[in-house]
Amino acid sequence: MSSRPSTPSVPRGRHAPPLEVRLEVQRTRLLEAAARVFARAGYADASAEAISREAGMSKATFYEHFANKEECILALFDAARDVVLQAMADAAGAAGSDPQARLRAGVRAFLETLASHPDEAQTVLVEIIGAGPRASERRDQILSGFAEVLDRENEVAARKGAIARFASPDDAFAVVGAIGELASRQVRLGQPADVRELEPVIERLLLGVLSQSGK
Length: 215
Description:
single chain, mainly alpha, Tetracycline Repressor, domain 2, about 70% helix, about 0% strand
């Protein structure tokens, strides 16, 4: 996930970096271009040719990295997941040990990342829905992964007596699913105008679920 401008090309000739570096730069540029194309045209109307052209590369180069546009959107989804999880982990770590401060920091980092990468947000929250059964399966896996992260964070805090424990792992998944739908609605409809305005809504959602835990 990266905001514009695109990743610069690498030098050629005897000053060129190792092959693995060149391939990584190519892949990053293709994923950035794919996010723009998917967001602008929609998954159904996007093509390998359009993505290659957006990246300033040949279609042959696209196919060196991805078998088709489905593989490309799955790779983009995975990359976006890694960026968001890292941003949330870094923010929570910087917030210290207070559970509510960590919670707020993680939510804020999630929303800031979406706001900073609108094309990627459009792709992974909206366009992924129409990308076929493999994409739907990957989406379910990633939502489950986010729920597991949230559940572990809650377990650690609850063990210290600092916060209530979720009543079940499904509570964490329910929260993650609701957050995903709130963010998707914002991207699709512009409600609210800025995705960061969802921060207090998400905090109330989390604290509301926690307030019912253990009853």
